[in-house]
């Protein structure tokens, strides 16, 4: 067995994690969260509840006419949050108008284009001169809101997830869970999971828990995974219950508490998103989704270069044919001139001979 080291036997690299920690804290963190789902499903309320802020103060709700004709918009809001000296720059990307318009096909395309544009910008910045200060605007997580009123996923939900699942980490959530009984929540969760499986949709996969983690953590991780799709309740109202301040919704028959694990999975969602899996969501974005984009982008660029090269070659070949034709024509002309000069010479010689003969006869 190894003998424990004495103080003067330490080299000092045990402090490396602290150095990394200090540097990371100094730099601050950034995270981009996208919320997608029909309007009125409680997206803004949930974001405010999650980050205990009012990120949507200046929001304007469009009229019915506007919502029918308008295409999906992409709206970015940024806030800086600080907790115990750690700074987080949170960007929330909202998609007002999503599935409001009668033509829902373009909704997914608009969101897909946005996600691609962020990848393209990152790729451009990464290939540029100043790589040290890249602003990462890639979408690290997409909370997809499923309506509690249906019997499972709607067509637009399936279309969206199928189109985006290889570009962004999708975390499905059941909105306004207080409108369902516990049994209905359970039934809807099972149905949603079954449909996700049937359609081959890849939602964000929680990493396996390390075997050396403590039992409490393992249990927490298991419960987190079992709760997907998270059922959530949002509220911006603070109520007082038994002298305790809570976020909840006050109904004539009682209060539903946002933070109560018996009422919904809000706490699990917050824990996963902020405390335990934020870095993994960023890592998967970098290592899987961005790498996919990068590989595809580079291969498309190579293909374009190849096509351009072939076109150039073809063009230079046809101009080369022209040069060959002109050369041949010039050669023919030269030959003709040479032949004519020959003929002229012969004629001159003949004239000379016959002239001489005539002269001779005269003598
Ligand atoms: P968004 O359009 O998806 O951003 O939806 P909002 O956050 O603006 O919420 C629309 C309405 O639903 C508001 O009146 C909210 O008070 C209400 N709401 C938000 N979250 C919940 C919830 O969890 N349960 C219930 N019953 N209503 C909610």
TrEMBL record:
Residues 323-350 form a coiled coil. PROSITE patterns: G_SEPTIN (PS51719). GO terms for biological process: cell division. GO terms for cellular component: cytoplasm. InterPro entries: G_SEPTIN_dom, P-loop_NTPase, Septin. Residues 27-300 form the Septin-type G domain. It is found in: Cytoplasm. Keywords: Cell cycle, Cell division, Coiled coil, Cytoplasm, GTP-binding, Nucleotide-binding. Pfam families: Septin (PF00735). It comes from the Eukaryota. Its main location: cytoplasm. GO terms for molecular function: GTP binding. Belongs to the TRAFAC class TrmE-Era-EngA-EngB-Septin-like GTPase superfamily. Septin GTPase family. This is Septin. It comes from Lingula anatina. The gene is LOC106178065.
């Amino acid at each position: 067995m190894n003998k424990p080291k004495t103080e003067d036997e330490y080299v000092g690299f045990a402090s490396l994690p602290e150095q990394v920690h200090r540097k990371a804290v100094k730099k601050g963190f950034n995270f981009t969260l996208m919320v997608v789902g029909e309007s009125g499903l409680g997206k803004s309320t949930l974001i405010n509840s999650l980050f205990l802020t009012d990120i949507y103060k200046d929001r304007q709700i469009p009229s019915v006419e506007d919502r029918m004709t308008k295409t999906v918009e992409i709206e970015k809001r940024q806030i800086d949050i600080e907790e115990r000296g750690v700074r987080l720059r949170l960007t929330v990307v909202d998609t007002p108008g999503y599935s409001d318009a009668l033509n829902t096909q373009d909704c997914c395309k608009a969101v897909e284009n946005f996600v691609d544009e962020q990848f393209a910008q990152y790729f451009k910045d990464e290939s540029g001169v100043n790589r040290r200060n890249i602003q990462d605007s890639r979408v690290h997580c997409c909370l997809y809101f499923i309506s509690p009123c249906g019997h499972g996923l709607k067509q637009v939900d399936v279309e969206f997830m199928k189109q985006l699942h290889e570009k962004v980490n999708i975390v499905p959530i059941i909105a306004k869970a207080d409108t369902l009984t516990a049994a209905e929540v359970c039934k809807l969760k099972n149905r949603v999971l079954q449909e996700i499986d049937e359609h081959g949709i890849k939602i964000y996969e929680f990493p396996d828990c390390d075997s050396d983690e403590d039992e409490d953590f393992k249990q927490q991780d298991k419960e987190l995974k079992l709760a997907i799709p998270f059922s959530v309740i949002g509220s911006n109202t603070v109520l007082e219950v038994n002298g305790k301040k809570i976020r909840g919704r006050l109904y004539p028959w009682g209060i539903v508490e946002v933070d109560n694990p018996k009422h919904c999975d809000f706490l699990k969602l917050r824990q996963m998103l902020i405390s335990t899996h934020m870095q993994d969501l960023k890592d998967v974005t970098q290592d899987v989704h961005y790498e996919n984009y990068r590989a595809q982008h580079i291969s498309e660029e190579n293909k374009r270069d190849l096509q351009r090269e072939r076109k150039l070659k073809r063009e230079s070949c046809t101009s080369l044919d022209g040069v060959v034709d002109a050369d041949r024509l010039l050669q023919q002309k030269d030959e003709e001139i040479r032949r004519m000069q020959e003929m002229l010479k012969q004629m001159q010689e003949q004239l000379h001979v016959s002239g001489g003969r005539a002269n001779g006869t005269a003598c």
